[in-house]
Amino acid sequence: MNRIFLLGAGGHARVVLESLRLAEPGVTVEVLDDDPAKWGGTMLGAPVSGGRDTLLAAPGARVMPAIGDNHQRLAAIEWLENSGFVVATTIDPRAILSVSATLGPGAFLAPGAIVNAGAALGRGVIVNTGASIDHDCVLADGVHIGPGARLCGGVRIGLRTLIGVGAVAVPLRTIGDDCVIGAGAAVTSDIHSGARATGVPARIKE
Ligand SMILES: CC(=O)SCCNC(=O)CCNC(=O)[C@H](O)C(C)(C)COP(=O)(O)OP(=O)(O)OC[C@H]1O[C@@H](n2cnc3c(N)ncnc32)[C@H](O)[C@@H]1OP(=O)(O)O
């Protein structure tokens, strides 16, 4: 039986669940969440059967992290790896992934996402609905590229950074760790780690 646990029962997890069912027809999905209030319920017909303790009864199980928050998702992946679980990736069949691009464990490509030649995406990277990552981009662990965002060629993005919905970055720019790039921003200069930047062109908000 093709069985997988989905870690997370929020809005992002519902998107991942639908993509997973399309990518792996017939898969049996069991949902886990750290919030006990969700236990015993269902999410899109899949049982929400408990929290991480439930996993400990299934050593070596396959788990897809589906937590929207970048820090929490990456921490969960590290916990799963250290606990001996197999961290899955999910590529929605309506996404396009270059044969020469690479994805780390726990990565998710949403419907309409495009990842082009030579791009390297780390662990737990989300490329959300209709976003595009062009050739030779390098995205570190825990990055989230929001819906409709566009990265030109050779852009580098640091750990856990969020690129907001509809934002863009021109070629070869570097955006550091733990940044937030606001919705609709145009990144035309490098952005240092920890910065929040908005606008066209994007300016760092101190
Ligand atoms: C499927 C999904 O939903 S995936 C979700 C992906 N997530 C996103 O895309 C979220 C992106 N987040 C944003 O763009 C946010 O607005 C942020 C992070 C830039 C700012 O959030 P906050 O710190 O809460 O700022 P806040 O809403 O209080 O606004 C502060 C000021 O910045 C302005 N501002 C906020 N966002 C932006 C933006 N994207 N571009 C330009 N100005 C902005 C506000 O208008 C406000 O201006 P004012 O002080 O003149 O009134």
Please describe what this structure looks like.
This is Acetyltransferase. It holds the Pfam family PglD_N. Belongs to the transferase hexapeptide repeat family. InterPro entries: AcTrfase_PglD-like (IPR020019), PglD_N (IPR041561), Trans_hexapeptide_repeat (IPR050179), Trimer_LpxA-like_sf (IPR011004). It comes from Sphingomonas hylomeconis. The strands form 4 sheets. An 8-stranded mixed beta sheet has the order 7-10-13-16-19-22-24-25, with helices on one face. It has 2 domains: 3-88, Rossmann fold; 89-197, 3 Solenoid (UDP N-Acetylglucosamine Acyltransferase, domain 1). The termini are far apart. Helix content is 15%, strand content 30%. The protein is built from 3 helices and 25 strands. The longest helix is centred in the N-terminal third of the chain and has 13 residues, at 11-23. The radius of gyration is 17 Å and the shape is globular. The protein has helices at residues 11-23, 52-55, 70-82, and strands spanning 3-7, 28-32, 42-43, 46-50, 62-65, 86-87, 90-91, 96-97, 102-103, 108-109, 114-115, 120-121, 126-127, 132-133, 138-139, 144-145, 150-151, 156-157, 162-163, 168-169, 174-175, 180-181, 186-187, 196-198, 203-204. By secondary structure, the chain is an alpha/beta fold.
Explain briefly what this protein structure is:
The chain has 206 residues and is an alpha/beta fold.
